[in-house]
Task: structure prediction
Amino acid sequence: MGNSQFTGRLAAVAAIAALCALPLRAATAADAIPEPEFGGPTTTELKGLHIHYLYETGREYDLDFDSETVTFIQYRETGGVALAKPSEPGVMHYRARKLRDQLYLVHWINRSPEMGNIHVALVIDLREHLLHASAMMPRGLEMMNYAHIKEIDWKGHGMRWKAKG
Result:
């Protein structure tokens, strides 16, 4: 092992030791998640909406909306590689805003101590059959992409559509 490698490892061990020696403190109000700031109108009219969509990267998902929660299932990974089985359904609370007829902004945050926070913002354009997504994923991975909606089934709104082919 070279001298610079040894010095680097020694510094890492010293940093870990210093962190371990710090006293633990009780969580305070300053550690709490701040109250959200929401201005403007929100809607729950997405209740009953099911969409199946495919990103340009090959990832494939279903979204099913209730009045307060959205459930998603992933079928394909980047490159279009099929998962051995669909992912376990993920359920999150969401907020939505109607931008115009058949155009919605949807937002959710998944707070996970194991994975880190995931923030997702979608623009769902039912008229054009497009979904635009922007997300901050674990480890700071940024994602911005769009997907073609392949199927729409909106119970209570009489909207059913499926892409040909």
Summary: The chain has a mean pLDDT of 82. Residues 41 and 97 are 6 Å apart (CA to CA). The chain is about 10% helix and 45% strand.
